[in-house]
Amino acid sequence: MSTWTVPERPEPPIDPVDERAALDDRLEFQRTTLLLKCGGLTPEQLATRSVPPSALSLLGLVRHLSAVEAWFHDFDGRPDHHYFWDYEPGVKGRSENVDITRADDDLASYQASVARSRTAVAGRSLDEASADSGHTLRWIYLHMIEEYARHNGHADFLRERIDGATGE
Fold first, then answer.
1. pLDDT the model gives residue 88
2. pTM
3. DSSP per residue, 50-116
4. By percentage, how much of the chain surpasses pLDDT 70?
5. What is the rounded distance in angstroms from the CA atom of residue 151 to the CA atom of residue 59?
6. 137-163 vs 58-68: helix axis angle to the nearest 10?
7. Which domains does the chain possess?
8. How confident is the model at residue 159 (pLDDT cuts 50, 70, 90)?
9. Are the C-beta atoms of residues 137 and 124 closer than 8 Å to each other?
10. What is the CB neighbour count within 10 angstroms for residue 58?
11. pLDDT band at 138; cut points 50, 70, 90
12. Distance (Å, rounded) from C-alpha 102 to C-alpha 41?
């Protein structure tokens, strides 16, 4: 793959129908923002590190957020899947270990992790607690929006370092 696709990112409505719609819309906006920051870049660019000694890269952020989506996966009762592994089944690694030849796999894993999250919580009450962490689904949504927003700030700086692109 030469470059990652640039997704379209609609603005969340300013008058959501209810709390759940507001949370879903804001989280989707943050998820798409991450992919927008990666859009149009080659695997080599996606693996570009920030500044020494940091190992932070856009590809590393995608890998990290694939695993962080597991907060939602707790609701489906299924075991961990490959998006938590460091390119070797069963070996959980760190997201800064990136391999440019696996960039497509990392994007596919991220997309699968997000799809699993959506399915795992569909129709569940925001007051329902995770059997694993004990946190309510409402708290998890808020935590995930915060997590994405923080890392999307990192992604802004990384993207600017790579090709000078700034902004949304």
1. 66
2. 0.91
3. -STT----HHHHHHHHHHHTHHHHTTTTPPP-GGGBSSSTT-B--TT---GGGHHHHHHHHHHHHHH
4. 90
5. 12
6. 170
7. 19-163 (1.20.120.450)
8. very high
9. yes
10. 27
11. very high
12. 14
